[in-house]
Design a protein that fits this description.
There is one protein chain. The protein has about 100 residues and is mainly α. It is built from five helices and no strands. Helix 4 crosses helix 5. The protein is extended and about 55 Å long. It starts with 15 loop residues before the first helix and ends with a helix.
Length: about 100
């Protein structure tokens, strides 16, 4: 891309407080919380309806149904359920340790 066409973006935010009022959809695709997902077919058509690009924005909204998460990620509801189950299995030992040590 020629330098004359490049758009200068400020440095990516270092903390959540710096990006709350930032541009949406989020231009910083290298952020660990950016929802960069390639979508095809029907999932792509649904994805165009929403401009959700930040997992932290979604987390601040509160709980979401499996289908809502599936629509954002471009996967099936069953796949979201599988991911949720695996995540819970991975954090359970740490939570048990915290509860045991008080």
């Amino acid at each position: 891309m020629p330098d004359s066409l490049a758009v200068a973006l400020p440095a990516p935010p270092a903390r959540r407080a710096e990006c709350i009022e930032g541009p949406r959809p989020c231009p910083w695709s290298t952020c660990r919380y950016h929802l960069r997902v390639e979508r095809r077919g029907l999932q792509a058509a649904k994805a165009d309806v929403t401009q959700e690009t930040c997992a932290l924005d979604l987390a601040e909204r509160g709980g979401m149904k499996l289908q809502e998460v599936a629509d954002v990620l471009g996967v099936t509801r069953e796949r979201v359920r599988q991911i949720e189950l695996r995540a819970l299995e991975r954090i359970r030992p740490g939570v048990a340790h915290l509860v045991a040590t008080g």
